Amino acid sequence: MRRLLTLLLLLLGTATALPAAAQSGPTAAFPYTLNTEKLPNGLTVVRVPYPSQGIIAYVTVVRVGSRNEVEPGKTGFAHFFEHMMFKGTKNNPEGSREKVMGTFGFDDNAFTTDDVTVYYSYGPTAGLPKLIELEADRFRNLEYSEPAFQTEALAVLGEYHKNAAAPFLKMEEELNAAAFQRHTYRHTTLGFYEDIKAMPQAYQYSREFFQRWYTPDNTMLFIVGDFDDAKVMQLVRENYGPWNRKVAQVTVPTEPPQTGPRTAHIDWPQPTQPRQILAWRTPAASVTTMDAAIQTVLVDYLTGPTSPAYKSLVLDKQLVEEIGSDYSVHRDPNLFTLTATLKNEKDRDTVRLALLKEVSNLAAGKLDAARVKAIQDHERYGTLMSLQTPRDVGVRLAMYGGILGTPDGLQLHLQNLTKVKPAQLQEFAKKYLTANRIILLSLTPKVAGAGGTK
């Protein structure tokens, strides 16, 4: 629910320092080699050989998301700028890039999260030289007129209205408002509604945004598939080498400690099912701690199909349609959640207490070590099975690389997953999943729907 753009789904500052060239070999958890080079301008270029027979994925991650939007009145620009990046340059005016991409048969898209913006193209290796030229041009030389900017701003406003028609955006907004008082995670990736409405008047700011964040030292490029490495690197150096901007430095406000439980409630005016969220603010993902790996295991341990909560609430008593978590890795402390879609409003307290009981049991040391090991094995197997195409590999690498600040972030995370000990789950729950740190959000439909009553 909390990620408007459904994907898998971070460290302050720019990317971790790398030698001029480095190689990360395959492991049991990640069976592909990463050949990494950092250009003199700071651009990190990662090439991943993949047996895809003439197919490549070309994925660019910029370490800018809604987290970076620190100026009042200027939320939503990371997402908005994702749209503007398709508007063309002097050398390749709007529409010409898409025409070339279509000629080669490339699938081309992008998405924005709280912490990063990711652009990906997927298609034939034969088009790679032209693709490198086009991508370097737009990241160096993006151009668009004020009328084009204003037109796209209205399209983004329409996107907000479309998302607002379902309960998930409102739930995310209310949960963020309850959880964060100062940190920029308080607003969603789309931004505050009033700021989105005001975007057409912010043309000049948009130009500053591009200069501030779309810089080589704030960007990683992942090329995955079947290609000639030497030729690719020659083209990358030629086309990206002149890119010479430096990333801006801003201070993201630190969230003060939470001193007691918080609640939020939504009366939803349309038929839907009641929802319940339990949330706690928990540590950021980092390559130097086990916090992200622990929370990844906790998701399945508390709500997965082998958990007591799932067996009781979903299978036996059938009080909920589903339970789960919206946890994803973040650069700064964010939320670990337990979510439930109820069948009937009258069962809300029963469901909430059942989930709290599982957390309490965990904190008290009632642990099933065999189930922890099974979850770890399942995570490893699931990751391997999800890497079916160069695009799967490239997007996953880009997400973890951008959030964790190092191109091998995914491998490091997967290695940490295998190291999680049952005692660490208990320690984490005792420290972070406590009564005085909880945030409870409930949604009740005003009109009865799918068993909901009001």
Provide an overview of this structure.
The two termini are 23 Å apart. Strand 2 and strand 3 form a beta hairpin. The protein contains 15 helices and 12 strands. 44% of the residues are buried. Helix 9 crosses helix 14. Keywords: Signal. This is Insulinase family protein.
Keywords:
454 residues; alpha+beta; Cytochrome Bc1 Complex, Chain A, domain 1; 2 domains; seven-stranded mixed sheet; five-stranded mixed sheet; 41% helix; 18% strand; disordered N terminus; disordered C terminus
Which helices and strands, and how do they pair?
Layout: E1 21-24, E2 34-38, E3 44-49, E4 55-62, H1 77-84, H2 96-104, E5 107-112, E6 117-124, H3 128-141, H4 146-164, H5 167-179, H6 193-198, H7 203-213, E7 219-225, H8 229-240, E8 262-268, E9 275-282, H9 291-303, H10 308-316, E10 320-324, E11 334-342, H11 348-363, H12 369-386, H13 390-404, H14 409-419, H15 422-432, E12 438-445
Helix pairs in contact: 3-8, 9-14, 11-15
Compact description:
This protein is of the alpha+beta class. The protein has helices spanning 77-84, 96-104, 128-141, 146-164, 167-179, 193-198, 203-213, 229-240, 291-303, 308-316, 348-363, 369-386, 390-404, 409-419, 422-432, and strands spanning 21-24, 34-38, 44-49, 55-62, 107-112, 117-124, 219-225, 262-268, 275-282, 320-324, 334-342, 438-445.
